[in-house]
Amino acid sequence: MFKFIKSNFFQIIRFGIVGIFNTCNSLIIYYILLYFNINYLISNFIAYICSCFISYGFNKNFVFRSRNGSIKKYYIIYLSSFVINMFCMYLWVDILNISNTIAPIITLIITVPYNYLLSKFWTFGVVKKKYSHTFVICAYKECRYLEQCILSLINQTVSSNIIMVTSTDNDFINRMAIKYKIHLYVRKGKSDIQKDWNFGYRKANSDLVTIVHQDDIYEKNYLEQILKFYQFNNNVLFLCTDYYVLKDNKKELDINSKLKRILKFPLRFSLFNGLKWFKVGALSFGNSINCPSVTYNKLLLGSNNIFTSKLKFSLDWDTFLKFAKGKGKIGYISKKLICYRIHDEATTVEFINSKERLKEDIIMFEKIWPKFIVKFIMKFYVRASDTYGGFNE
User: Fold this and answer.
1) Residue 244: CB partners within 8 Å, gap ≥ 6?
2) How far apart are CA 39 and CA 37, in angstroms?
3) Cα–Cα distance between 78 and 149 in angstroms, integer?
4) If we measure between CA atoms, which residue out of 341, 376, 355, 352 comes closest to residue 146?
5) Residue 301: left if φ>0, alpha if ψ -120 to 50, beta else—which one?
6) pLDDT tens digits, residue range 215-233?
7) What is the CA radius of gyration of the chain?
8) Dihedral angle, C-alpha 322, 327, 332, 338, nearest 10 °
9) Are 324 and 359 in contact (CB under 8 A)?
10) I want to staple 167 with a disulfide (CB 3.0 to 4.6 A). Which of 187, 214, 248, 287 is the partner?
């Protein structure tokens, strides 16, 4: 029960607001009719019908925010709720001799939960969609962790299409593709992360796409959780999860991953994850989103290139910020469903050693904050960056 209330907290609050509004209308009508000596059952009937007509639009558009609401189902619920209401009123007043001014308030204890649960799961319940999904592995050179990554995708609890893309075609990558029967696409031209990611994104012929880094490991229930989320949140542009740091094949939780959880916290709630201020806020103190944990919704983002940043290292952060400033929601599952590997051969290290990362981080902060605030932020940010990966992974 507690878990249900927690996950639907803001929806319940909205339902309560509408309920209070309708109840006030209903009670006003009820007491006015009583004042004119109209029978309490007739007064209750008229008041209930009036509130029923008003509440449908509010519940559809404000409470459940559903495109699938059935007015027929809604009135069936409220008709049955009315029968319960009338029975309770008769029980309280005629059988138990409770005052007819108090009886309707007591009845709400029964009818409100009844109306909410049936409205949520029957009238305005989300129609589940079966999404297709593709894991796109971006392979480079001869990475010793590639096979472990592939196995983590193959061993998912829910099967998915898996493809591999590369701009550094070699025998090792070809052997891995043949061994695990993975379709390999080779992009011609100089190796470039942005071009490779876009290439893989375009090659994925599915509704959802996860761009996989070759050295990371996905928990076996990663895709199961992703698909479950999208079934009930089909208006989300992209979905991210939490992660472990994988160092020397051991899972760790560093200070940066904990800070990122705090920054992403508002995105857990549907009330906030579509608001520009909260979306940008989650990215305003660094890239709080772990790139390989992200699944993109091609139905909303389209099939063309989505990575359009001029930056090299921070292109993922820049891309997420672009989406955050536009329309649509950012989904977030606060479960650690991916192991982000830290090792000396990673591209991240090359950027850190060349100081390119710091330059791009400043550019990103200046897209969000005035320059005098950026100078202040960077004093603390540089300290966080001393740990490999910093905020921007």
Assistant:
1) 251, 252, 253, 257, 336, 338, 339, 340
2) 6
3) 52
4) 341
5) alpha
6) 999 999 999 999 989 887 8
7) 27
8) -40
9) no
10) 187
Of all residues in the chain, the percent with pLDDT exceeding 70 is: 89
Give ∠ CA 126-131-134 in degrees, rounded to 5: 150
Task: Among 121-130, 187-196, 262-271, 365-374, name the one with the lowest average pLDDT.
Answer: 121-130
Tens digit of pLDDT for each residue in 311-332? 988 999 999 999 999 999 999 9
Q: What is the mean pLDDT of residues 145-174?
A: 96
- Token reading at 180: 């695990």
Strand 236-247 and strand 329-341: the pairing is parallel
Tokens, residue 217: 């490991």
Find the Cα–Cα–Cα–Cα dihedral 236, 237, 242, 246, rounded to 10°. 150
Distance, CA of 85 to CA of 88 (rounded, Å)? 5
Q: Which two tokens stand for residue 196?
A: 């490779």
Rounded to whole angstroms, the Cα distance separating 170 from 173 reads 6
Tell me how far apart the alpha carbons of residues 270 and 249 are, in angstroms, rounded to a whole number: 35
Residues 166, 183: Cα–Cα separation, whole Å? 11
**What string of DSSP letters covers 340-377?**
EE--TTSHHHHHHHTTHHHHHHHHHHHTTS-HHHHHHH
What pairs with residue 209 in β-bridges?
134, 296
Domains of the chain and any CATH numbers = 2-123 (no CATH), 133-342 (3.90.550.10)
